[in-house]
Amino acid sequence: MTQYSYQAVDSKNKQVKGNLPARNLEDAEEQLRELGLYPISVQAKAKRKSGGLGAGKVTTKDVLSFTIQLHLMFTAGLPLLQSLQNIAEQEKKPKFQEVIGDICKKIETTGSFSEAIAAYPKVFPPFYLGAIRAGEQGGTLAEILKELAISLEKQDELQAELKQALMYPCMIMVVMSAVTGFYAFYLMPKMMELVIELGAPIPWYTRGVQFVIGSIMSLWIPIVVFAVAGFIALLFYRKTESGAYTLSYMKMKVPLFGSVIQKSILCTFSHYLSLLLHSGFGLLPSLDLVKGTIGNKTIVRSIETMEERIKRGESFADSMKGLPFPGFMITMIGLGEQTGKVAEQLVLINGYFEKDVQRTTKKVLTVMEPLILVVFGGISAVILLSTFFPLYNSMGQIK
Length: 399
Known about the structure:
Helix content is 76%, strand content 6%. The longest helix has 58 residues, at 141-198. It has a 3-stranded antiparallel sheet with strand order 2-1-3. The chain is elongated, with a radius of gyration of 28 Å. The chain folds into 3 domains: 1-45; 56-124, no CATH class; 142-399, Up-down Bundle (Receptor-associated Protein). The protein is built from 17 helices and 3 strands. It has 399 residues and is mainly alpha-helical. The N and C termini lie far apart (95 Å).
């Protein structure tokens, strides 16, 4: 029997988590219902041997390519298993090829595509598994694969645009840092040696700059050790519950970039939630699946709060009040509840956030690029002026 991990709700609307052995996914869900539990998420636990098939090395682009190919073959009339076998044969990445091959074996045994991919939660995120399961149950797998392909492609394009937009200011920062470091740690000490040899007086402002640079040079080992230790401590702190929450909250409050990060997360939230609702999932199961795709503990906690409020009888829109969701989003979802078109409203919200992230990113870069030039240019100018003024004066004394 296979071990299954589950999340369920009992008769008192209390969330329950645990593991149980079962022959297949349907058997596991049936056992939960016999125990008086409503299953929200049931996944086969990956064995160590198969779980280590490079799951962490399979990228979103790999899954996107896999989904597009599977949709095309499946729509063309090829059976699911044969489509997967063809993709496995053509896959160039050995680890992903091994994963797809193992999925084929599981389908031959259980006959369930969703149960087969459930063994690889690091490759196929919860929303993907949920959409596939809904497609199997509703007989709309081809349509679901198409929606998943569009969904993954849009998210990949958005992330690529953000990375490309940030690349230029990062390059400017690296170049300006290198130039400033050259002036401070190489050029200035050499020029000051010449000034001292000429016997010229060194002004107070040059001595101040020399003191700062000298202090950095003499303490560079403790500074590096402290920086490395701080980085390691931050990594450990991020793995704790409170650390993950605090850091995720701080990310959304970072000057300039905080709003971009928050809007990007809300874009992902609205997009995947609309996809799951369109697939036929209920609101609570959809929210539970979306939590696994957000990656920001603050928003995850907010979703958990929403789930608790909805279980108490509050509407979807009311459950969002007082949480990090903008007012217009709450208003639109409220209108969607009144008209029975929540999924459609979420699509509109997602479209707004996509454009807003692009606009906000451009505004941030418009401010950031000159700011980098001013800061690093100012530091370089102070170093150069502090170097060349006494040198110029010493040359005048020689005449």
